[in-house]
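This week, work through this protein record:
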Amino acid sequence: MNRKNLTLIICIAIPLLVGLLAGILSGGGMETFMKLDKPPLSPPGWVFPVVWTILYILMGIASYLVLTSGAERQKILEALIFYFAQLAANFVWPILFFDLKWYLLSFAWLILLWVLIFKTIRLFRDISKEAAWLMIPYLVWVTFAGYLNLGIAWMN
């Protein structure tokens, strides 16, 4: 396996592993979610792991495109700092929501996550437009998650 392929695999594995670890730590999160009163448009439980897996793969590819872009090192470093900050914020959310059941704080945390994703997209765009586009579905999904989270906070 060449170095480029290994780098791509590592870039994809990082967000997948972060998501997996968050899922493990939040235990029976979907069981909790299914018992809650939910706002209209709430998808069935099986949709969440499918969507998150796709989004983590897209994030990994986006980070790979930035990392291997050949852009100025400082620009890449700044973009990846925000990328890892949003990934860390993403990791914390299910713990706040599922384990601690702090629904309103979880919503505020999603706002922070949304801002970090938006900043990451802007920084990625300056390096690789393709990387920025790959992050857009994630921003849209987190926006939808915010709607669900706020609805759950209101209804429960």
User: Anything to note?
Assistant: The CA atoms of residues 15 and 56 lie 5 Å apart. The chain has a mean pLDDT of 95. The chain has one domain: 3-155.
